[in-house]
Amino acid sequence: MWAKIAERKYNDLFVYPKPTIIIIHAFSNRRIAIGIDVPGRDWEQIAWLIPFQSTVYGRFDGQRYPLWQGTRMLVLPKEELKGCSLEIKPRNVIKSITVRVYESFLVDDLSI
Length: 112
Fold this sequence. Notes:
Blueprint (H helix, E strand, L loop, with lengths): L1 E9 L10 E3 L7 E7 L9 E9 L2 E4 L3 E3 L2 E6 L2 H4 L3 E6 L6 E8 L8
Antiparallel strand pairs: 1-9, 2-8, 3-7, 3-9, 4-5, 4-6, 4-8
């Protein structure tokens, strides 16, 4: 039911400039899952999921979705996935993070 799109691991986010976690993929389903692992203590909120689109006029961000430790399934609007990329923006106090992005491969009413 799920296909892994991307897996990124960052061991040191305290460097300057801070690395950006951007997932570029041609999505075919609105149902996605984001898995986040942060070593150490449990956090209330770890990061934000920001769908965005780059155009010749600049970058246009969509609605921000909060992310917690573990895996969270989201159903995003079609406008936020069609021709868009995803950015995962961790909190400033996070030193290392592992991000996994999954997409549902079911063909249903949530397909784009």
